[in-house]
Amino acid sequence: MKVNLTTGAYSSRSLIASAQRCVNLYPEKNPEDAPFPTTYYPTPGLKRRGTTTYNVWRCLYTATNGRVLGVIGQKVVNVNADGTFTDVGLMVGTALTPCYMADNGTSVVLVDGSPAGYTIDLVNLTFAQITDEAFYGSDRVDIVDGYFLFNRPGTQQFYISLLNKTNFDPLDFASKAGAPDLLVGVMATRRNVFLFGEATTEIWTNTGGSAFTFSRVSGTFLQFGCAAKHSLAQADGSIYWISQTPQGSRMVMRTMNYDRQRVSNFAIEAEFQTYSKVDDAIGWVEQFSGHFWYVLTFPTANKTWVFDISADEWFERAALLPSGEFTRHRANCYTFALGSVHLVGDYESGNLYELSQDQYTDDGDEIRRVRSFPHLLNDGKRVVYTQLQAAMQVGAAGVGQEAEIRLRWSDTKGYSWQGVTSATLGARGEYIHDVRFLRLGMARDRVFELSWTAAFPTALNGAFLQLIPSAT
Predict the structure, then answer these.
(1) Quick one: which of 106, 160, 290, 441 could link to 147 by a disulfide (CB 3.0–4.6 Å)?
(2) Side-chain half-sphere of 271: how many Cα atoms within 13 Å?
(3) pLDDT at residue 338, rounded to an integer
(4) What is the DSSP letter of 222?
């Protein structure tokens, strides 16, 4: 019996429907003539690029001239290609929340949700606090057609800079007026400006009006607002976010032209409902090997979830604690830099990492990969499982390396686990090594789960089962 694994993570609100976990593995669909329809590959690991004495990376940004800027604690730095840092300036306040940058080719604007804002000259890195009386602070910043875009915190208003400038006209503002909810963030995509409120969203565009250059796009209005302002992220012309409406919240949406589309599923939404809060969620989009990943971290819940836009599937990304428990991934902010490098900043230290598919540890710490299987049933009758053979990539270990893989199972439909047994992933060059587990007992409803840590390439297709059906 061949067992295919065709979905990502899907642990239903009731595990009798599905108890499938997918941790630190991402699915990729295979050609029709492949032995299995889907292969699960390891998520990228972390390689340290540099470290500072400050802690909590709040922002990473790659400017249009290639400069990489970051905020760690209250310190603004230029990230050099050799992993060192050049101090740029110091922000006021003590907040450690995410902050955002945008540039017009010559100057960067930096905001952090407070009344303060900052500019950075991209040539000489001159740092200055914005003192213009018509600047009111902003939760986020974006740019379109040469205008910096800001929301005025605690109001329905958004405002803009002068064209290709970092100063302001006090009359250059407008209000999200289609509904009375407050504006929480402004983002631009395809030259359209999305005004995300707490419960609704409006779409504006640059029409070149004499009084105010932006106007609302007629007939466009989304009955979905934003529950977490830091969850907003843009990829390939769409904006992704955790939504909120007067009727409820915690669905993940993306814009589709002037409309929206739900990308979360029932299992993910049930998971999010268990979190005490989601308004601190942080989101961004990465692209690896043709996969666009919307990464969504919940600091209070200590969870990181990833939506694979290309595969339309979800999986978990997690760090491994010394206790053996999972926690959120170490990344707190992200940028693609230097033409080929994915940079992330640590959420509790001064470490800057490169996120790389050629790394199989998190800066030397083990990464545990987990994949649980669908329910296995035989019309309610008992089944004797004599053997499970994992269909895996093996033989890629380094010289003298050999990693353990563990199998456990649940006969309570995913509510409790037993029977941990182990095998190896083979020594270097053992490409036909069998990952085989024997004498696995009897059950009416069985859920298997494989887990392993390996500092070398692995991949999982599925499994082959030998079993003996029972009459009862």
Answers:
(1) 160
(2) 23
(3) 82
(4) B
Question: Taking the CB of residue 395, how many other CB atoms lie within 10 A of it?
Answer: 16
Task: Kindly provide the b/e burial profile for residues 306-344, where b requires at least 16 CB atoms within 10 angstroms of the residue's own CB.
Answer: bbbbbbebbbbbbbbeeeeebebbbbbbbbbbeeebbbb
Closest by Cα among 137, 34, 54 to 94:
54
DSSP 210: S
Q: Is the pLDDT of residue 399 over 90?
A: no
Mean pLDDT score, 186-200 = 96
> Which H or E run contains 142?
strand 141-144
* Length of the chain measured in residues: 472
- Largest CA-CA distance found in the chain, in angstroms, rounded: 82
Residue among 30, 115, 39 nearest 460 (CA)? 39
Q: What is the pLDDT of residues 404-437, one digit of tens each?
A: 999 999 999 999 999 899 999 999 999 999 999 9
* Mean of pLDDT values over 56-71: 97
How many angstroms separate the CA atoms of 338 and 81, rounded? 8
pLDDT at 401 over 90: no
Q: What is the dihedral of CA 354, 355, 360, 366, to 10 degrees?
A: 80
For residues 80 and 86, the answer to whether their CB atoms sit within 8 Å is yes
Q: How far is CA 417 from the centre of its chain?
A: 29
pTM check: above 0.90: yes
Average pLDDT over residues 370-383: 95
What are the structure tokens assigned to 15, written together? 């595990």
SS3 annotation, 311-336: CCEEEECEEECCCCCEEECCEEEEEE
Average pLDDT, the chain: 96
pLDDT at position 136: 97
